[in-house]
Amino acid sequence: MRLTKKISLFAAAAAITASTAVLAAPTFINVLTGGTSGVYYPIGVALSQLYSNGIEGSKTSVQATKASVENLNLLEAGRGELAFALGDSVADAWNGVEDAGFKAPLKKIRAIAGTYPNYIQIVANAESGIKTLEDLKGKRISVGAPKSGTELNARAIFEAAGLSYKDMGKVEFLPYAESVELIKNRQLDATLQSSGLGMAAIRDLASTMKISFVSIPAEVTAKIDNAAYEAATIPAGTYDGQDADVPTVAINNILVTHEGVSDEVAYQMTKLMFDNLERLGTAHSAAKDIKLESATKNLPIPLHPGAERFYKEAGAL
User: Fold this and answer.
1) Domains of the chain
2) Phi, psi values for residue 23, rounded to 5°
3) Distance (Å, whole) CA 164 – CA 61
4) Coiled-coil annotation: which residues (predicted)?
C-alpha cells in the first residue's frame, strides 16, 4: 500500500515538473530585418527590445538580412517569427511568383500590420549629370541585392519608364551601404534605394558629396502594373542639399509572421508595437508613419488571428 502511494507521489511530482518545464520554455522571437544601414534594422531592434521586456519568457534576437524576399522565405521555413517586407513582395510570395524569388506559394505567412511606406530614392553623384530616368542610360548604377524587394522595385520602375538593365553602362546588385561607398569612390554613378525617408546611407552620402535626386514622374508610376505602387513625394530638406520636392513612388511595408506563431504571441507583438509607437519613432523617423487606422488596409495576405484579436479590441476592424 505504502509502495503504491510512494509511486503515485513520484508520478505526480514528475508530471508537475514536466508541466513546469513546458511552461518555462522560452518563447523565441527572431526579428528579420534588412541591412544594418537601412530602416528595417533600427526599427527591428526597437521591436525586439519591446518584446524582450513585454512578453514574459521571451528570448529575442534581430537578424540582418537581404530584406523582403529572403525574410519571407525564412518565415515560411520557420526560421523567424517576425519580418519586414515590401507589400509587392508579400503579394508575390503569397502567389508564388518564381521570377520574384518564390519557387512556390508561401501559404504559411500571415500579416501583423501594414506599417510605413518605402520611398524609391534614386540618388546620383551630381558630377555624373544624371537628373532624369533617361539620363541613367549608359551609366553605372546599383539596384539592390539580387531579387531583393529593392531590386524588384527597380525592375518595375525601369520597365514602366521604357528602360531595362541592358540600357545601363553597368549594373551592380548591392545593398545600401556598399552602393554608397562605391559612389563615394567614383566607381558608381547612381543607386536606387527602396527605403523609409531619412535613411542613414543616403544621409551619409549627402554629407560627403553633392548629390542629385532622380524624379519618377506620376505618368511613369501610372504605368506600373501593380496596385502596391503609389505616386509619392520626397519632401524638400529630407537630405542635405535637397532643396526641392522629388516626385517618386511609394510602396507600403508590412510586418509579417507565420501561422506557427501562437495567437497569444502574435497578439502581444501587435499590441506592444501600437502601445509604443512614440518609442519606435525615436528609433527611426520612418516609424512615425505607422498608424493604427491604416494597419489593416489593403493587406495582400490574411491577418494572423492573434493580430486580428488586437484590432477587434482596438476597434480598428
Assistant:
1) 28-115+252-314 (3.40.190.10), 118-251 (3.40.190.10)
2) -65, -35
3) 39
4) none
